[in-house]
């Protein structure tokens, strides 16, 4: 499991300070729970910064927007629940109510169709 | 005659995990760079490394810089297609130069231009990079994409041509601009709302004329080709790089396999994934994306690409980045898609992005591998991309980026500054080289 944190939020900040990611990572580091964090350049939720996503091999990528560093605790809780679920799909794990209304996308890593499913 | 010996610049990467892009598992060793070339890999003779600047790898991964096979410097992170064409040319050029820098900041040292929103943006950027005026990857420049009347995805970024002679003239005009390749926009794109991905707008005669004219001038041809028919047209007439190939049918699959020694497929997967699932904040919710067919296209494309992979067709990462929901800087997400959606091993994904990238750039004997004699386009990664391919998405983990033997980025081993310096634009001890030769 990986917690992806946007390093460029807010995108439309003309100073490109990336202050959201740094502040959130600091807040996460202060939490005793150990969560792997990966900085990435944008998660595409830009009008509603700050943005994080929960991801893992074969797991649904679940994105939250409109976050603040104060949401770090709920983000970690969500990351751990996501990791413990079989698919990552938020219907399969309890989304913390503090951030449930800020869930902005679920990217399914859909299993491919049978081998000959491309058009005949 | 007096022979003057130029002083050499040497860099020794010591104690690195060498991911050499030959397919071999990474192995520990040293890599010596002299001027712009790698001159020794593995065990480096001490005398040969004398005077070299030493970078202590401490087991970090040293690998080739990456290649993006579907690059648009001029796609300006717009939230719609029209936004690609409305930016004034002066601002647009600045944006392109920023894109170029973002690519190399992201570890990409090779990019294949897949169309330019205005005539000379790509060409000017390529030349500026090559002359050392601005940082960026090695770049093969394109011009505006060619479409037939009624077949453009966006009028303002299109060069229109009709009929074989029209195609020849359009190609000649683009060659005169200085492009390295020609882009044909052969099919629709569902997000337009009117141009269907499964529709094919070019005729065989038009594709044949464009390709023959381009090849006559030594230029590559690439094509936006989503429909089954367009893929077959590409193979029939020698289009070198097929973009998307979403709806490839059985006949097309056989044709690709039969011609896999020369044809490339670059699906631009992240566009499909992000447009389907992640564009709602920009006015294109998942329901709308599904309604126009992106879910169906992604399913069919993934199945087809898996089949291509099984048959040994060369598939390259490169994702059409540069829209609001697929912004510049997120390029390495394509490698994750290759692993998770297409079933590539991480090694296969990296080989596609490096060794095959070198071949795509038409310099397979000197780009894309960590081998003696190759150009020193290298990245030192704090992590193991074979264990976690997503590490390549984290620019903070790309500690050193080198192109042509010169550092674009150097990150020392000192600890990051105190965390209260929110005002700083960059963090840590990262130093991006500003001065060019």
UniProtKB/TrEMBL annotation, chain A:
CDD domains: TRX_Fd_family. InterPro entries: DUF1636. It comes from the Bacteria. Pfam families: DUF1636. This is DUF1636 domain-containing protein. It comes from Arsenicicoccus piscis.
Automatic annotation (TrEMBL), chain B:
Gene3D superfamilies: Metal-dependent hydrolases (3.20.20.140), Urease, subunit C, domain 1 (2.30.40.10). It holds the Pfam family Amidohydro_1. CDD domains: Met_dep_hydrolase_A. It comes from Arsenicicoccus piscis. InterPro entries: Amidohydro-rel (IPR006680), Metal-dep_hydrolase_composite (IPR011059), Metal_Hydrolase (IPR032466), Metallo-dep_Hydrolase (IPR051781), OTAase-like (IPR057744). Residues 408-437 are annotated as: Disordered. This is Dipeptidase. Residues 62-406 form the Amidohydrolase-related domain.
């Amino acid at each position: 499991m990986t917690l992806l944190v946007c390093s460029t939020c807010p995108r439309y900040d003309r100073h490109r300070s990336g202050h959201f990611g740094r502040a959130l990572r600091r807040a996460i580091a202060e939490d005793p729970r150990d969560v792997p964090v990966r900085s990435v350049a944008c998660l595409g939720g830009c009008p509603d910064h700050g943005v994080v996503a929960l991801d893992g091999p074969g797991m649904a990528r679940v994105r939250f927007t409109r976050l603040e560093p104060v949401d770090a605790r709920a983000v970690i809780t969500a990351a751990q629940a996501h990791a413990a679920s079989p698919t990552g799909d938020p219907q399969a794990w309890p989304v913390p109510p503090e951030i449930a209304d800020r869930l902005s996308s679920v990217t399914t890593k859909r299993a491919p169709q049978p081998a000959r499913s491309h058009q005949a | 005659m007096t022979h003057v010996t130029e002083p050499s610049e040497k860099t020794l990467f010591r104690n690195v995990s060498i991911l050499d892009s030959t397919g071999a598992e990474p192995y520990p060793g040293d890599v010596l760079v002299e001027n712009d070339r790698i001159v020794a890999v593995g065990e480096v003779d001490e005398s040969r490394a004398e005077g070299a600047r030493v970078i202590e790898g401490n087991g970090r991964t040293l690998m080739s810089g990456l290649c993006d096979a579907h690059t648009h410097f001029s796609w300006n992170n717009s939230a719609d297609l029209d936004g690609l064409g409305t930016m004034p040319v002066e601002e647009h050029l600045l944006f392109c130069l920023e894109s170029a820098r973002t690519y190399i900041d992201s570890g990409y040292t090779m990019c294949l231009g897949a169309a330019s929103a205005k005539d000379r943006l790509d060409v000017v950027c390529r030349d500026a990079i090559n002359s050392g005026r601005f940082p960026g990857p090695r770049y093969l420049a394109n011009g505006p994409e060619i479409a037939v009347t009624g077949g453009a995805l966006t009028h303002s970024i299109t060069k229109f041509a009709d009929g074989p002679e029209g195609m020849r003239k359009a190609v000649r005009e683009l060659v005169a601009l200085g492009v390295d390749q020609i882009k044909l926009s052969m099919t629709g794109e569902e997000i337009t709302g009117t141009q269907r991905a499964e529709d094919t707008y070019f005729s065989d005669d038009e594709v044949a004329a464009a390709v023959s004219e381009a090849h006559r001038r030594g230029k590559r041809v690439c094509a936006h080709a989503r429909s089954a028919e367009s893929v077959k047209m590409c193979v029939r007439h020698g289009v070198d790089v097929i973009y998307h190939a979403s709806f490839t049918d059985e006949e097309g699959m056989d044709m690709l396999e039969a011609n896999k020694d020369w044809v490339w497929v670059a699906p631009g997967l992240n566009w499909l994934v992000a447009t389907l699932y992640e564009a709602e904040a920009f006015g294109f919710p998942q329901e709308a994306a599904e309604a126009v067919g992106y879910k169906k296209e992604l399913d069919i494309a993934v199945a087809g690409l898996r089949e291509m992979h099984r048959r040994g067709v060369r598939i390259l990462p490169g994702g059409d980045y540069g829209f609001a929901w697929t912004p510049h800087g997120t390029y390495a997400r394509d490698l994750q898609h290759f692993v998770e959606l297409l079933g590539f091993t991480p090694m296969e994904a990296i080989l596609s992005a490096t060794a095959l990238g070198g071949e795509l750039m038409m310099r397979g004997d000197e780009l894309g591998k960590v081998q003696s004699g190759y150009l020193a386009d290298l990245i030192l990664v704090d992590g193991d991309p074979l264990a976690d391919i997503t590490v390549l998405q984290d620019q903070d983990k790309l500690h050193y980026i080198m192109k042509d033997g010169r550092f674009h980025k150097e990150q020392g081993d000192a600890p990051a500054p105190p965390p209260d310096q929110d005002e700083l634009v960059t963090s840590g001890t990262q130093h991006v080289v500003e001065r060019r030769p």
